[in-house]
Write a structure and sequence with these properties.
This protein is an alpha+beta fold. It contains 12 helices and 14 strands. An 8-stranded mixed sheet has the order 1-4-5-6-7-8-9-10, covered by helices on one side. Helix 4 crosses helix 6. It is globular, with a radius of gyration of 19 Å.
Amino acid sequence: MDTIREIILSGTAYERGWQHGEALRTEINDFLNDSCARINLIRELPLEAGLMSSLIGQHATVIEQELPEIAEELKGLAAGADISYEHAVLLQVRVELMAYNERDILEGDCSTLAFKRDDHTIITGQTIDLPGNMASLGCIFRILPENEDDPEILMYGFAGLLGYMGMNSTGLSVNINMVVSDDWHPGVSPYLLVRHMLTLRSTDECLDALEKIKRSSSRSFLLSDKNGLVNAECTGNEVRTNAGDLLFHTNHYLDEELKKKDRIHFLFKNSSIKRLALLQKLLPANTEDITPAMLFDIFSDHSLYPVGICAHSEGNIRRSETVGAVVMEPAKFVLHARKGNTCVAITHTFKLTNQHIVTRRHYSRVTK
């Protein structure tokens, strides 16, 4: 777990997908052949093959309509990995398939924080907590722009998944947390939304995308650009935002209206509430001298063991565990990552090469 493989993707959407699939062909095929990407190891009841195929097709239709370039990349992924297009889509909507009619299994994942210093520089960080023994599939993806005016992307993700969390060379960063609502439906998965947002240039553009694109499921996105920080809590149909210079998020809704729609299991919600309070307690009040190493120390905390900020599955494939942690310094174009349990992993640092901060007018946004 000490090394993090870096996959470099370039060219057209199809070419990028092909390169991804070809580079990680063995990992992708082994994963798919393990009880349908371990979906049926995590579910209480396995999904019948015909139903799974139908659900994947419904998601694929929306992806093709909403994000055709992403659909092209999925076709390339399928060709490069020597898998079907249906299986390429399955990898993007795996959480939706795991949770179909079994929403209570979602423990929630990831503990996130972000702050803006007096000099306006921003640091964001999060743990990546997932069920299914996912740590070994973690990679860094460096996505080079097809057009010179587009941003380069640096992203922590997983074999076969086109998006997870990361930053780009305009100084935009995107973090992601699970939240659970009851209005999931066929649509664009949150991970593909992250990938799309990382092609954009500001938090405002990201919020516009979240409101316009048909989303498959609920998530919370912590966004930053050179102007500041904003958190967007989403159900399948609604988006609520909160801005500030110091933001924390775990896996329950913080917006007063969305609290009424929170459907995370009460045991997992209790864990989320405790982790949120612990993050707020552990982060020093003076953020000026906080280093990435200090944040990784926070992400290694075991005060709530085994479910705490650094969570351990104790060999239970159905339990979420910390499979990685990331700290981003967007103004420096630097992403620091640890793969596996944060408490034992070592830090690797990656830097964007195509650095072009774009000046954008910032405006206040009315929450809808």
